[in-house]
């Protein structure tokens, strides 16, 4: 900021509180006296005031008038009037723009009102000059405050975006099964609760499939745990491939998966379940890129349940699980619902 303007603003900030502490009305004349006192541009005035202050003389109207008459120069009235009008216009237009300036304007507003008040009487050219300087200084202060606030806000915005990305990432990790990259049980529980409450509110049908790999223990025992993991990933992928849109696939735990089919009637869910079963059963599993090792086929059993009045997510899951048990008891590689 221009040093002259900065000085004027500083003088203004010293003069006004001092005048108020000494109960001196902020008239243009009085302001001119105290401005020049703090600016130290009028040494005889400064000595006179220092003397009055040292002797604790009260600054009555006549003392103030005496200071003005003895130490402040007379000025031409027309010049005063013109500058007075211009300054008033400037203040008004600034006041109108106040709403557009985002923050940090309270002091500014107070100062402008002060300046405006000072212009009500007949100010001297020095005072007007001072006022214009002070107004500019205050404007620059607010503008630079706004610039730095904008920069701060931009930085804050970047930090928030980064934080939001980190949070999104974290919640993704918390909801994802590492082995299959499907939703995990926690994500399923949230989704299932939402679907049950949707059904309760608006009877939108929704079905749940519980999918369990058949004889997975013996598969693991024969081929090893790592190959077993690959099979889990394959089943997860096959489930994803078999559904669409808002359908929700999760690994519930171990070799058990769940598929939720929102807005789906029982018979359509049965078709989806059958297509999942077939897709998995028909696939010849192999491992290794060059020397492919044949692993044979795996199958899944599926239990199907639809949400019914009075259900919560646990009762729904229990019915699907009961159906899965039936599918296993009926020889596996089938769907029951
Ligand atoms: N490789 C691998 N195996 C797992 C994982 N989680 C659970 N299993 C295995 O899955 C097998 C599940 O076995 P069981 O519950 O007896 O069922 P099953 O052999 O699939 O037989 P049925 O369900 O009756 O057809 C166990 O051997 C578990 O160790 C996993 O993350 N990776």
TrEMBL record:
Coiled coil: none
CDD domains, sorted: GGDEF
Reactions that this protein is recorded to catalyse: 2 GTP = 3',3'-c-di-GMP + 2 diphosphate
Pfam families: GGDEF
InterPro entries on file: Diguanylate_Cyclase, GGDEF_dom, Nucleotide_cyclase, Rev_trsase/Diguanyl_cyclase
EC number of the protein: 2.7.7.65
Enzyme class: transferase
Domain of life of the organism encoding this protein: Bacteria
Residue intervals of the GGDEF domain: 204-337
Protein name as annotated: diguanylate cyclase
Organism: Shewanella japonica
């Amino acid at each position: 900021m221009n040093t002259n303007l900065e000085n004027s603003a500083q003088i203004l900030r010293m003069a006004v509180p001092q005048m108020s502490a000494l109960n001196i009305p902020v008239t243009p004349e009085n302001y001119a006296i105290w401005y020049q006192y703090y600016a130290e541009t009028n040494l005889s005035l400064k000595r006179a005031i220092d003397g009055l202050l040292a002797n604790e003389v009260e600054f009555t109207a006549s003392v103030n008038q005496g200071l003005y008459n003895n130490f402040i120069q007379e000025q031409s009235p027309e010049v005063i009037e013109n500058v007075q009008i211009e300054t008033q216009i400037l203040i008004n237009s600034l006041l109108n723009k106040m709403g557009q300036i985002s923050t940090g304007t309270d002091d500014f507003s107070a100062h402008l009102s002060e300046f405006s008040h000072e212009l009500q009487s007949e100010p001297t050219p020095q005072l007007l000059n001072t006022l214009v300087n002070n107004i500019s200084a205050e404007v620059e202060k607010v503008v630079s405050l706004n610039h730095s606030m904008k920069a701060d806000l931009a930085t804050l915005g970047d930090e928030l975006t980064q934080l939001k990305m980190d949070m999104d990432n974290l919640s993704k990790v918390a909801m994802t099964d590492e082995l299959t990259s499907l939703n995990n049980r926690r994500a399923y529980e949230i989704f299932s609760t939402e679907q049950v409450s949707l059904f309760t509110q608006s009877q939108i049908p929704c079905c749940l499939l519980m999918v369990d790999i058949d004889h997975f223990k013996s598969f693991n025992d024969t081929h090893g745990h790592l190959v077993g993991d690959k099979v889990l990933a394959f089943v997860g992928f096959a489930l994803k491939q078999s559904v669409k849109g808002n359908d929700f696939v999760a690994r519930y735990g171990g070799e058990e998966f769940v598929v939720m089919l929102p807005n789906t009637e029982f018979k359509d869910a049965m078709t989806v379940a059958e297509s999942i079963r077939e897709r998995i059963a028909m696939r010849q599993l192999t491992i290794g890129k060059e020397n492919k090792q044949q692993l044979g086929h795996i199958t899944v059993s599926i239990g199907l349940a639809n949400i019914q009045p009075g259900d919560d997510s646990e009762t729904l899951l229990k019915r699907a699980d009961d159906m899965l048990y039936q599918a296993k008891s009926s020889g596996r590689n089938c769907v029951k619902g």
